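#structure-requests
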Amino acid sequence: ANNSEIEQDLIMDKDGNSSASSLITLSGEMSVVDVPHSEQTTKLQGRNDVKQIRIQSESDFATVGVLLDAAKLKETPNQGIHIEYTIQTAGLAQIGWIRVPTTSKDDVEIFLPNSDTGDGVGDDNVSFGYDGSRKLKFNGGTDTAYGSVQGSKEKELVEWNAGDILASWCRRSTDGKTIEIGYLLNGNDLGVAFSIAAGSNDFGYYPALSLNLGEVVDINLGPEFSHDVKEGCVGVSHLSKTSSDESHEEGVSSKPEAKSYDDAPPQKRPRDEDSMTMSRPASANATAAIDTFDLNNCSSVQELLKLGSDRLKSILLSMGIKCGGTPEQRADRLFSLKGLRREDYPQKVRGKNFIL
């Protein structure tokens, strides 16, 4: 999909206005609706200028990014950005930032999430994520324990729960040498999670998150938030693309000037608002829980293919193994595990829900 196709496929509300024009699906499928004022956090209820959007993943590990105005970012390179989320289902997610090149250099690494392989925010060198359900931060394919409240005598890592308010911020350090990314949970500072060499201004940092199948998160773009904005930062709405910023010239796209978005899949149309659930799909959970299969009784990949694509996906899910790809790829992946103990399963095939 090219830039114009992606922009044309942004989710529209029933009045024909873009209710989620600040979001773009980068991998997998997401359902998106505006959060009713009655369901907004207490401090934000009745504020018509507050833009909260509810997203739910309909793929194994879907990724969505927040569109910012590239021109505004260039004008204020030292301005930090603050964004807020309401954790609705408290399951597996990786919430954070992606580094986007502002130039078209061929040798620059770009963020390429893939819901089929379970790669999302934090699973490569140019993205940085945090998951409060696992109390881990992610970057470059590695994970590290993170999530203790700064200044607290208790140094144990905190776990997020349904209804918690997670804020994330990204700003240049006071000496200008690094880009700092950090988080706050219910207003409690979890500290700096990532420090990245600042380098030149050839990169912008955009909020992004990856959600496991069925997970639900509300995104608050501001301008008002449930807790104070991090020092040195402004709410993301100050830097997001708005209708007043749109150029009326034909062919001009409002999407960030970043080639990492060029091949992003078009967004899907939302389901009806009433269909947005606040829990993981029961069918998906039930399938993973009850589907049993004895791989030792299978003699070939061809035999596995006879099970069909959906059954192969169900088996892989129940085993905590990545379930994306074609039927042939699923069958090959499953057959490669025959005879292995669970602890010997290769890391590259383990899904986000893999448990020893």
